[in-house]
Structures
1.
Amino acid sequence: MTEQKRPPLYEADHGIVVRVESAFLPEHSAPRDGRWAFSYTVTIVNDGPDAATLLARHWIITDGNGDVEHVRGPGVVGYQPALKPGQSFSYTSGAILKTPRGIMQGEYLMQRPDGSRFEADIPAFALATPSAIH
């Protein structure tokens, strides 16, 4: 019997791999007021042969009602990390939704040392309370 390899959960986009884990924050939520708080931890890995610097972010946040919010800004949590091949950068941030579940996705604007730019996709991930998953 041969072992089958499963495909990676996240594929490299221009050599940049983005992984995200989210968590519900009940202590910061107020469901009676229509407020559900979530944290998300992002790990960005440069799996390619060239260095890349994260210049900007674009998040697309969709709540359970289908309402969409776009968030754009320089860097992430006050940083514009420069990643050499094989390096990674992790950070944790948060989002507030008006519903107990939603989806986030987006892209990072990256720049190579030669000045060329590209977007690295942030794959869609769920923001959901434990009871909203079932």
2.
Amino acid sequence: MIHSFPLRVYYEDTDMGGIVYYANYLKFIERARSDWVRDLGIDQNAMRQKDGVIFAVRRVEADYLAPALFDDMLEVRTRTLAVTGARLVLEQLVLRGEERLFAAQVTVVCLTEAGQPARLPANIRLTLH
């Protein structure tokens, strides 16, 4: 399943040349992941309160392929590459139409609120498979 998250580039997302500032792509893909998790029916607040675990990004491998510009309409596509007991590996692409502007492979882990590694709750693993 591929999750699609639309977004528009605002002036605040750009540098003086009207090009999206490189760190903002990480914000874009974070918003898309949050929306993806919500669309899967996973309540992250309830997960923290009930299971005592949270999601955290462990690793991002990113490729900047082409610039996005002020007022562009973009789409972030998210898909699961792997699910293990304690981590998710996702591919996230930022596109303008079908043009790939940014590609990332993101590893998300599950942690206790104290920051210790934890297994993903069983219901979440089942949802993501």
